[in-house]
Amino acid sequence: MGSLFEDALKRVDEAAERLNLDENIYRILRKPKKQVIVSIPVEMDDGTIRVFDGYRVHYNVAMGPAKGGIRFHPNVTLDEVTTLAMWMTWKCAVVNIPFGGGKGGVAVDPHKLSVKELERLTRRYTAEIIDLIGPDVDVPAPDVNTNSQVMAWIVDTYSMHMRKTVTSVVTGKPIFLGGSRGRREATGRGIMFIAREAGRVYGLPLKNATVAVQGFGNVGSVAAKLIAMHGARVVALSDVNGGIYNENGIDVNAALRKVEETGTIVGLEGTTPITNEQLLELDVDFLIPAALENQITRENADKIKAKIIVEGANGPTTTEADKVLNERGVKVIPDILSNAGGVTVSYFEWVQDRDGYFWKESVVNDRLEEVMTDAFNDVYQMSKQHNVPMRLAAYMVAIKRVADITKARGIYA
Q1: Is the overall model pTM greater than 0.90, yes or no?
Q2: Known catalytic residues?
Q3: Percent of the chain's residues with pLDDT above 70
């Protein structure tokens, strides 16, 4: 299998070519600024020592401090982390917030660790990368298998080294430790705003639209609930255990209660079971893939019947699938735009921490709506101006912003 990073660069290359980007500037944008691999020795509960591989990548910091999550997963690699850091660079740029792109991870299955082992792992990883992070340097956040508790351990470890409390070193913290109201729902809320705007410009308003959501975790469940509140009919949902379908619409609140009670949506009363694959191929107005990467591929792209795809996950559509969908006239709103609500409210959290003044949730949501709506309009106008799909337009908007700043700053020598 080829490099994920090399595959992701194909989209960047195309956008740069469309922009007629200065080749000297583009040589800079194609390379990660900093890649670090660390060994993380951890004493396990039984007294043995295990050593885990950890990573932190700064892809580009022309616009500001690196920003990006930390994931704990057995399949984490440097290639994956570098690719995600690059995506974060474009994601921050497309919504025009003053962050660069970063990402981190540890190759570990956290479900096989006790809480104490997980804490020791987190603190040692933080200590190993401590020279790379900080409010003005790199601001991590939760990602796959990490959460607000992990962020709290990072805050404490960093603060102990700095000899003062530094809550702004990470985002995604508990609210009582300097977290932002509205942060947990931000990615899903941002998807709702983007779906609403896409429906507006493509003549498919959310009211009475049919929607399928793949992935009913934090992102997918919030998006499904808010979209349903706007009058859409959510006809299909899925999680890791399978999917459910009801052509007349699923009660999303009932699905949320089912997950709380049983850990899965499968078996929800009034629905019929479907597979994740079947969900992707339903004849709906909106499809929201909010699960994992590479769900829409060359193999199933010609079977997609949705009119608009709003990407909730990172990288759910492969490059080959993109070409098929574009040829078939399916509108794809790319991940770097549609799921940027999370990093936008992370930015708000960072601002609040540094000011020491915290906003009401209604203020957070209003400002998120403004940022997401402006970003959608910027990308849509670029798409119309150059007659290109929305993904290419989003990359063009983002790359132009980073390139312009890089050119203005010049090369330090």
Answers
A1: yes
A2: 103
A3: 100
